Amino acid sequence: MHRYARALVAGKVVEGFLEEDAFVAGDIRHSLDQVRLVAPCRPTKIIGVGRNYAEHAAEFGTAPPPEPLLFFKPPSAVTDPDADVVYPRQTRRVDFEGELAVVIGVRCKAVRADEAEEVIAGYTICNDLTARDLQRSDGQWARAKGFDGFAPLGPCIVAGLDPRRLRLQTFVNGRKRQDASVADLTYSVPQLVEYISAAFTLEPGDVISTGTPAGVGPLQPQDVVEVVIDPIGILRNRIVAPAS
Ligand code: MG
């Protein structure tokens, strides 16, 4: 299985593959402590899906929506594996949301669910960071979901997975906070690709973040969030206070 990744090597972004302890680009093996991984794709848009696990919807006292509930995160929200994420001054509550993310491989529109696999490059992990207080007070979700750094992506893209067989776990400072089977998605990956591509042309590198399971909660500066989906790996980021 190939784990496609990108890394900064001598100041340039290089494509390659992630192995246990190395980033391999062509014939060159770089030890992982010598290179910095960057987000494995550059989306023109990130489409988020709200309340797509029944148990998470229940946390907010709601049922799953009658159709997929969509929102956007801007490309400027994307950040890298292991990057620090600044806790914005405008919010008093930032929640982690560990999610399986679908990466689109080809330009497409109006894809049927039974053809969805043909347009999917692979799967990565997204932490759909959310300013929960602003999500409520703003009415629209653009600011709450869209701050710089609020879409960590990575550490790699794995093709050919069956999302129904994946398990998602989120840890904060090493303590387990989310643990779910991706099979429990209310709207499956093929259904999401059909519904979303009926509305928007999807471009290579675009990301569909499929929603978070139960267990979301607030973060504080210095917290380390790890979202784990085997065999994609661990998406790890530290939250930091804004510079004073
Ligand atoms: Mg989410």
Task: Provide structural commentary.
With 244 residues, the protein is mostly beta strands. The protein has two domains: 1-38, FAH (SH3 type barrels, Roll), CATH 2.30.30.370; 40-240, Alpha-Beta Complex (Fumarylacetoacetate hydrolase, domain 2), CATH 3.90.850. Helix content is 12%, strand content 41%. It has four helices and 20 strands. It has helices at 54-59, 132-138, 142-146, 189-199, and strands at residues 3-9, 12-18, 22-25, 28-31, 36-38, 46-50, 69-73, 78-79, 84-86, 94-96, 98-104, 120-127, 130-131, 151-158, 167-172, 175-181, 207-209, 217-219, 224-229, 233-240. It is globular, with a radius of gyration of 17 Å. The termini are far apart. The model has no long low-confidence stretch (mean pLDDT 96). Magnesium ion binds at residues 48, 97, 99, 128, 211-212.
Notable traits:
244 residues; mainly beta; SH3 type barrels; Fumarylacetoacetate hydrolase, domain 2; 2 domains; 12-stranded mixed β-sheet; 5-stranded mixed β-sheet; 4 helices; 12% helix; binds magnesium ion
Record the SSE blueprint:
Elements: E1 3-9, E2 12-18, E3 22-25, E4 28-31, E5 36-38, E6 46-50, H1 54-59, E7 69-73, E8 78-79, E9 84-86, E10 94-96, E11 98-104, E12 120-127, E13 130-131, H2 132-138, H3 142-146, E14 151-158, E15 167-172, E16 175-181, H4 189-199, E17 207-209, E18 217-219, E19 224-229, E20 233-240
Parallel strand pairs: 6-17, 8-14, 9-20
Antiparallel strand pairs: 1-2, 1-5, 1-14, 2-3, 3-4, 6-7, 10-13, 10-18, 11-12, 11-17, 12-14, 15-16, 15-19, 19-20
The protein binds magnesium ion (MG).
